[in-house]
Amino acid sequence: MRRRWLWTIVTLGMATPGAATPGAAQALHRRLQVWRDPACDCCGGWVDHMRAAGFQVEEHHVASVAAARRQLGIPADLLSCHAAWVDGYALEGHVPAPAVLRLLAERPSGIRGLAVPGMPLGSPGMEIPGQPNDSYDVIAFADGHPHRVFMRFRGKQQV
User: Fold this and answer.
1) Which element (helix H / strand E) includes 157?
2) CA distances from 73 to 42, 70, 101, 102, 114 (A)
3) What is the rounded distance in angstroms from the CA atom of residue 77 to the CA atom of residue 58?
4) pLDDT in tens, 24-47
């Protein structure tokens, strides 16, 4: 009886009414650690995007993201402006929340993380009013394996 009471309290405490976006319930209570330059506005925009998707973001403001990237195992050919870690996966750049949610839901074997190399216009945090959104790939990477396309987007919309 005591276990059932404790389980009820724990599960009720995890419920959050009024999730802001589809898939936000999947992200709730997911701790996302981000390493970024504190002066980078587009990094801040991506952090806001991830928070709106329900992630609990812990920011690490650093002068250089290089040490975090090495520790996370992010390949040098996939770099952008910030790095992150969530539930055992590395993230690099402006990866849209739907791609992260899919990764966390499916947990495909052999993937170390996701990256959006460069800074595509219209990606989360890179929105510029009056400018057309770029099409771009979210790249899955793994140790000792070729990179592959995980998802494609135009702006924040999957294509």
Assistant:
1) strand 157-158
2) 23, 5, 20, 21, 11
3) 26
4) 555 556 899 999 999 999 999 999
Give dist(CA 4, CA 15) in Å, integer: 17
How do residues 105-125 score in pLDDT, each as one tens digit?
999 999 999 999 999 999 999
Residue 68: helix, strand or coil by DSSP? helix
Instruction: Return the bridge partners of 33, or none.
Output: 58, 85
Residue 110 neighbours by CB distance under 10 Å: 11
Q: Cα(1)–Cα(153) distance, rounded to whole angstroms? A: 49
Residue 92: helix, strand or coil by DSSP?
strand
Model pTM? 0.83
Q: Are strands 113-116 and 89-93 parallel, antiparallel or unpaired?
A: parallel
pLDDT for the residue 27: 57
> Strands, E, within 9-156: which ranges?
31-36, 56-61, 83-86, 89-93, 113-116, 135-142, 145-154
The SS3 call for residue 38 is coil
**What are the angstrom distances between the C-alpha of 109 and each of 97, 115, 143?**
20, 17, 12
- Take residue 34 and report the two structure tokens written for it: 């981000």
